[in-house]
Design brief:
The protein is of the alpha/beta class and about 375 residues long. It has 2 domains: about 160 residues, Glycogen Phosphorylase B (Rossmann fold), CATH 3.40.50; about 160 residues, 3-Layer(aba) Sandwich (Rossmann fold). About 40% of the residues lie in helices and about 15% in strands. The chain is built from 17 helices and 14 strands. The strands form 3 sheets. It has a 6-stranded parallel beta sheet. A hairpin with a 2-residue loop joins strand 5 and strand 6. The chain is globular.
Amino acid sequence: MKIGLVHDPYSPISLGNVGGEDNLVELEVTQLEARGHEVQRIMRILDGGRRRFIHGIVTASGRGISPIDKKSIDSLDLIHTNNLSLVSGYSWIDKSRVPVVSSFHNYRPLCPISISWRDGNLCFECRDVSSFKAVQHRCGGVVGLLGSIRKGVLQRNEPEIQKPSHLIFTSNKMAAAYQASTKISNFDILHNPSRLKTANNSSKTLSLSATPPKGFLFAGRLTPEKGVIELIEKWPEQEPLTIAGSGVLESKVRKLCDSRQNIKFYGTFSPHDHNFYGQFEALIFPSSWLEGSPLVVIEAISMGVPVIATDTSSATELIEQSQCGITIPQNYSTEEMRIAISRLRENSNIFRRNGLEAGETIFSPDTWIKNLESIFERVLRNKVL
């Protein structure tokens, strides 16, 4: 199969980032080529803020003009897009003679600031009423204003979710949020894979025979929707907690950690550090955002580290699939967190064993790429000639 991979990269992934579509795209290329497919990368990066602004907002992201050559895409069997918005435009989809499958990892087509979250709760006003609700609520400053113009004026036909022939979402909750907008009924759910290598008997035996580690971990971007401030404020005094990550709230998080003897600020860690998660008793995932398929949760589970997550996020689907963790209410109390920790400890060995098994099966890159390949094959079989 000759596959074109259209992806507009973010900044390069390095220390301090535990997820990212860019890493997932790199994994897809490697896995597809290993399975004998020919992959043509169609990726563009613009250097410089002015060039990015002019091209991204006015041309590609605004009017949908595309620099992608029609001849190069017509030679393919299928095109798969991931982060399609900033540089590649959308006009090429209308000219394509091959099926286009689009994957979604956030809410950019529904929300001018991509997260569909505001003031501590989910928000779909721009999807259901008008994109200029973001202006009314002052979401994202200049970014929110430009996103509102793009979505409400320049791209009212919603090309990202109306033009592809098939859609892929990373969770059932994400698919439900999109179904209110798209007319496309052809879609699949495909959870992200773990990037960590756990499929060997020695690591499994070691993790289960070792004395369970102590202490808990928060890992992720330090942004309001991740719930890190509320976590620190509600965290039980007698339990140790480590905060790992960086972001706009870093200064506030550092100060809060300094005021609590049982909470330590770690900062950034490498997404390729396979041993980092294993130092902790469990991962705490307090996000109040409707996350798609958070990699930090998948990777913790795959290393046999249980997860305590709020019921808003799609992390609940990952916990249910793996049977490796506990769900708590979004607006949890300190006492509810204490109860969850107690329950987790009672079932620690079961959770750890389940997580390791899930890492070797349902969350393995091999399982993920086979499922993605199956979707591509089905789309090609159903192609309208």
